Amino acid sequence: MIRVLLVDDQALIRSGFRAFLDLEDDIEVVAEAANGQEGLALAREHLPDIALIDIQMPVLDGIETTRRIAADPALTGVHVVILTNYGLDEYVFDALSAGAAGFLVKDIVPEDFLHAVRVAARGDALLAPSITRKLINRYVTQPLPTDTSTALEILTGREREAVVLVAYGLSNDEIADRMVISPLTAKTHVNRAMTKLHARDRAQLVILAYESGLVIPRSSPPHVG
């Protein structure tokens, strides 16, 4: 059962999302909040798998709420998915850096919404290709750091290959195909890389891959193996 917390200051938005979710046998809405402060308290109380959080709210906005969830050791199992009316805007990078696992636009069709919740819950392929392209475009226009992270040196060769493919938005199954390994082995490589690099989720792994210079922006993922 996927446990979901809804955090949005618009009651109509919350009720609409809840209506979709309540129809699913494998999803349960455990609580609702009208602002980030309430949402943070309810996250600590209910320990949901997914926190769907509006990016603009009174009292405590979505980015700060996300940052506090990510910083709380008791909430390490909570995946934050940001809700926004504006699509991919300037908030994307701040929210990803704060610890968000992904984004949903509020006018998303129900089928895609439910799929996104399930994807986020299992921690796989949390970044849509459109968001990955935004990240790539950002680093195309900015110089790479001159001092690449020495943290990457602790990764094995196969773990580095997996991180590169994650940075291009590939799922574990797609990574397995590229590396000619099983999906379970691909997932293991990704999880070990996240652990070694202290990345909360795949979104932060992508950011680290670009910021460190491990991945050089290009039009398509490289062939590995």
What are its keywords?
225 residues; alpha/beta; five-stranded parallel sheet
**How many helices in DSSP terms?**
10
Major sheet strand order: 2-1-3-4-5
Shape: globular
Mean pLDDT: 82
Explain this structure to me?
The protein has 225 residues and is α/β, with parallel strands linked by helices. The chain is 49% helix and 12% strand. It is built from ten helices and five strands. α1 links the parallel β1 and β2.
Topology of this structure?
Blueprint: E1 2-7, H1 11-22, E2 27-33, H2 36-46, E3 50-54, H3 62-71, E4 79-84, H4 91-98, E5 102-105, H5 110-122, H6 129-140, H7 157-167, H8 172-179, H9 183-197, H10 202-212
How would you briefly describe this protein structure?
The chain has 225 residues and is α/β, with parallel strands linked by helices. The protein has ten helices and five strands, in the order E-H-E-H-E-H-E-H-E-H-H-H-H-H-H. The protein has helices at residues 11-22, 36-46, 62-71, 91-98, 110-122, 129-140, 157-167, 172-179, 183-197, 202-212; strands spanning 2-7, 27-33, 50-54, 79-84, 102-105.
